[in-house]
Amino acid sequence: MVYVLSLVAATCFAIASVAQHRASQSLSVELNLRFRLIGRLFRNADFLRGSLFDIIGIVAQFFALTLGPVSIVQPILSVGLVLALGIEHRLARRKFQPLDIIASIITTLSLAYFVILRGVSVSDNLSMYLSIILALSILLWDLVLLIIAKIMSKGVPQLLIVASAALSLGCGSVLEREVGLALHHGIVYTALYPPTWILIVIAPVALVLVQSAFQLGTFKSVLPILTVGEPAVAIGLGALMLGETVLPVRHLVDGSLALAVMVISLLYLARSESNFMDSVESSPEDLN
Questions:
Q1: Residue 138 to residue 168: CA distance in whole angstroms
Q2: Is a pLDDT exceeding 70 seen at residue 31?
Q3: DSSP letter assigned to residue 69
C-alpha cells in the first residue's frame, strides 16, 4: 500500500506542477515572494486545476508517510515525473524521444533496485528536540527570505528561492511522517503535538516559495532542482529527525550507486520535459 499511495501522490504532484507553473508565469513579478501571490493564483483556472491534483497528492503522501519511511516514499515521489511524462505526452500528442524512453527505464529500474535493497522496515528513533530545532530553523530561514524580498529592490536570486522551496518541501515531508506517527496516540495528542503546528505554518510558506520560483524561472531551471532536491533533503532530514536508516550497511555501496543513477536519469528527464514546456509556453493551446 505504501508503494501505491506514493505513486498516486507522485503522479498528482508532477501533473500539478505543470499547471501551476503556467499559472504563476501569467502573474506580475511584483507579487513574487508575497502571500498575495497565492490569493491571485486562486483566481486562476490553471492553478485551481493543479491544486486539485495537489490536494489528492498531499492526502496520498500523508498516508504513505504514515505507513512507510521517508527514505522509501520520497524516492518514489520523485519518479512520479516519469509517470507524468507519459500523461503529458499523451495530452500533447507528441512521441517519446528515444533517450527519454531509455532514461525512464533506467530511472524505474534504479528505483526498484533501491527499494528492494532498502526494504520496508521502519526503525524510527524520533529525536523530538532536534526535530523541532531543525524544523523551526528552516521555517525561520524561509521567513527571513520573505522579509529580505520586501527590502531588496532587485529581488532574491531565483536559485536561492528554488533551493529554499526544496528545503521546505523536504522538511514538510518529514513533519508529515511525524504527525502520522503521532496519530497513533490519538487526535488530541496530535493536535497538541508541536510538529503539527510547525507543519501547518511551513506549508503555506513552502507554497509561496514554490510558486515564486515558478514565476521567476523557466521550467528547466526550476523542475530539476525540485525533483531531486526535495527527496534529497527529506532523506537527510529523515535520518536526522527520525533516526531512519537510509540503507543497510551491507548494501550501502550498491544502494547509493542505484540512487545516484536514478538522480542522473531524473535530472535528464526533468531537463527534457522542461525544454518542451518552455517551447510551448507562448502557445498553450498546443497542450490542449
A1: 7
A2: no
A3: -
